[in-house]
Amino acid sequence: MAFSFFRHMLHLHRNKIVKFSILIFLWICSVPGVQAQNKFYVRQNLSNHDDKSMHYGFYLGVNSSRFTLEHSDFYVQQPLRINPKFSPGFNIGFVLNKRITDYVDARFVPGVGFYSRKIEFTDGNEPTMQEIGATSLEFPLLFKFKSKRRGNIRMYFVGGAKASTDVGNKKRNSLSEEGRIEVNGTDAAIEYGVGLDLFYPYFKFAPEIRFSNGLINRYIPGTNQNLQGMRSNTITLYLNFEN
After folding, report:
1. Which position has the higher pLDDT, 154 or 80?
2. Exposure string for 64-103, b = 16+ CB within 10 A, e = fewer
3. Among candidate residues 168, 68, 74, the one with its CA nearest the CA of residue 113
4. pLDDT tens across 134-193, in order?
5. How far are the Cα atoms of 38, 80, 127 from residue 124, in angstroms, in the given order?
């Protein structure tokens, strides 16, 4: 009984646990490097990097994305169960970074995201699945809050907003035509995350975890009476390369 209750609590708070674990992991990774550089003198790579007004680069990313669903009153009366599933995808784009102060940058990181979001339908029989894939043009505007640089390592937080529009969709499903869910192609989201600047002799490498929570209801009314709202939810690991 106690184990079932504990498992239920973990399920309810799994998103908070994942985010907290990622922060602890990044902090643990940064501490050994800082301690080692304090103990021994390390030559500072790209020593004038922070003096430049603009920086440019590119990024690669892998994502895990799903829709957060809002069920209708009609859904409560049905034996049908509709559950969103996380599915993998990837991202690619450019980095334009503008220095504002010693500890704050503005970043415009336009790119292309490839997403695959799945929704599972269960009514007591064999589950059916609808996959809503999309190729999206994305335009995030972010603010980067940097810590003090320690040798060749620096931690940072990032936050801002993103606008996006779909330029291609693919729908794979085993549903009848009347049961399919349709979504609109525009979205806006709040984004926030954490990362590490790692300075190398010829470039800066910055792994970054970023969370994206959609603000726009993308559900097209009437396509499935069991729903009344759908918003995007994405976790992405970015690998940034900057000059």
Report:
1. 154
2. ebbbebeebeebeeeeeebebeebebebebebebebeeee
3. 168
4. 999 999 999 999 999 999 999 999 999 999 999 976 655 545 455 678 899 999 999 999
5. 61, 8, 8
Domain ranges of the chain: 2-242
Distance between CA 90 and CA 113 in Å, rounded?
6
pTM passes above 0.85? no
CATH topology of domain 2-242: Porin (2.40.160)
DSSP state of 49: G
Distance (Å, whole) CA 166 – CA 84: 20
Summarised one tens digit per residue, pLDDT across range 48-66 is 888 899 999 999 999 999 9
Q: How far apart are CA 208 and CA 37, in angstroms?
A: 22
**Residue 19 CB neighbour total at 10 angstroms:** 16
- Which of 69, 70, 68, 63 has the alpha carbon at shortest distance from 87? 63
Q: Please report which residue ranges of the chain form alpha helices under DSSP H.
A: 2-12, 14-39, 73-76
